[in-house]
Amino acid sequence: MSKGSNWGELPALVLTNLFQYLDYHDRLQASAVCWHWRSVIFQPRFFKGIHFDVARENNKKNSFFLQSLAHIISAAKISFDSCNLYDVELATEILYKLSKSSCLSSLSLQPKYATLVTPGRFYSEEEWNYIYKLFVEPIKALLGRPNPPLKELDLGCSEILTLHAADFLNSCPRPQFLQRLGFASVKQDPSHYALSAIEPTLFEKCQALQQLSLDYDTMCDEFLQTLQLLPLRRLTIHVHGLDEEHPGISEGAWATFCAKNPQTELHLTLVCAYEAVDILHSHILRPSMPLSHLKVLFCERINCDALEYLSRYYKETLKSMIWVDSMEYRNIMELVLRTEQDPLVMMAWRCKKLEEIVIHGYVLDPHNLVGISRLRGRDLKVLEVSRIDLSMPSVMMTPFIEEISTQLGQKWAPLDPKTLPAALGFYPVSDDVRDQYILRYIRNGSST
Description:
By secondary structure, this protein is an alpha/beta fold. It is 36% helix and 14% strand. Strands 1-2-3-4-5-6-7-8-9-10-11-12 form a 12-stranded parallel sheet, with helices on both faces. Helix 4 (59-68) links the parallel strand 1 (49-53) and strand 2 (75-80). It comes from Culex quinquefasciatus (Southern house mosquito).
């Protein structure tokens, strides 16, 4: 460029090509040079997705996003305080504006709690109408657009929204473009809740569906038979309560499913399933399940029979085992994991793909942790525990910690009880604290 030339007059095409070589943050800095450079950055290629973090202090930022970017983004995530009525309604304002977007193909709602506050009583007609107007109608509008078709919809584990899953599927004129659906929930009261009715036939035309999450209550042999026709890569199932009339899923149904879908991974999550955890090994787990990830969250007890079941039947599939409870005195004094054959050690020995073990709320024997680290070595990417046998002086723990670190190929130590998340502290833990932890963990908790 000759002397005296104005950098602010570079053609938009030239700036676009230059911006493509920069990462996101450098591109934003470069766009601050002048108005012309700033205007060039607002293109779909530079803004694939936006996270709307709903809060009063973010109102100006979110308004700017809606005004400048809502018409060009292909993916949107809306996180909001679902216990705050003002924030809930702010979130729905954003949702309504996004429902008119001509580019959006992916929508993820992320309420911060299991509860979604409304002016009416839980499960009342007033609440139902409120939710329908503020959330269901704009989501149905997005799904009902002829172009572009919505490819991804995640309801963020919201119990009340997942009750409308059938409405959403019925409103979709082109289900063959759906690639990811998040219809699993976290219940406000795991022992008493309404059941979602989804007919398996609604999924028959979802011929591109690769990721699906559902509650165990909706599943049965017939449902699994329909899902085996889809190109699923991940099937996530949430277990809460177990209805006496629920038929369960048979071994034969899982065997047929796996024969036709050898690529599918099953992620099974128990959430405050106080009764189901006791019969996990006898009523829920089946030998032919393609189980790759198990999460058991705040079920208030550990099931060693289920742990032994994992090592016996999922030698070729299991990648991650997470068992999380808050710390209670009974856990420390009575539920130390010591058996003739520690099930965690057996799991580490037998399960060839195991990459992650997380145990909170229970005291573990350091000798067994060393055994696990030796058996898995550097293939074990995550070994996370918060309590080791308290009867051993701290000075005697150092050799164990050093040995585990050597075997894993990374610096290792049990988590410091003083810095644990509040949900993992001593009982009682409030429902809001627990639920917020659960939702974060379900979304981001697994490292594998």
